[in-house]
Amino acid sequence: MFENLLIQSVIESIRVGSLYALMALGITLTVSVLKLPNFAHAEYITVGAYTALIVSLNWSTNPALVLGMAFIITAIVAYGSHRAVFKPMSKHASSIYTMLLASFAVGLILRYILFIIVDIYGLADRQVQVPQRLVMRVGNVPVTNRFFWALIGGVGCMIVLSLLLN
User: Fold this and answer.
1) Residue ranges per domain, the chain?
2) Disulfide check for 129: which of 44, 56, 147, 152 has CB 3.0–4.6 Å away?
3) Do 40 and 106 meet the contact criterion of CB atoms below 8 Å apart?
4) Beta carbons within 8 Å of 48's beta carbon, 6+ residues apart
5) CA distance 109 to 140
6) Secondary structure of residue 131 in the 3-state scheme
């Protein structure tokens, strides 16, 4: 019993840690390239997550399509906020503090738009409907394809970005 709980905790920690690593890569890249910590970054991640949820519930459970649509919609939202807020401010040589405040504002705007959408469509307690297949067992603990998607995605992105930036 204890061994299974320990193994399950380690596997889940690796999966969640890989997802956190992916999120951290985005904000790290933004800070290193633009020299601006964009505090709306978490909301962009949330836009992607809810896009994946909506696509998986309404159109397809194909992981490639779900991830692709989440990426495209999130990129459009991020680009739109850049064009509407950050680009005009950088043209006027706004200070870093003003840009930080603007990133907080963009984050709040996106957060409350998401709250409204989630409330209207009742998405708060729903899960992304991507097929989950048993890949292997470690002891009595099942390891699914979602674990490997997260692990390969997290480690793969770290390696690719490290090679590109160094």
Assistant:
1) 2-165
2) 56
3) yes
4) 70, 71, 73, 74
5) 45
6) coil
**Distance, CA of 134 to chain centre:** 24
35: DSSP letter: S
State the CB neighbour count (10 A cutoff) for residue 165: 10
- Contacts of 123-130 with CB under 8 Å at 24 or more apart are 123/50, 123/53, 123/54, 126/53, 126/57, 127/53, 128/49, 128/52, 128/53, 128/56, 128/66, 129/56, 129/57, 129/61, 130/56, 130/61, 130/63, 130/66
Instruction: Over range 130-150, report the average pLDDT.
Output: 83
Secondary structure element (H or E) that encloses residue 141, with its range: strand 141-144
**What Cα–Cα distance (Å) separates residue 28 from each residue in 38, 39, 41, 165?**
10, 12, 10, 12
Task: Find where tokens 């950088």 sit.
Answer: 90
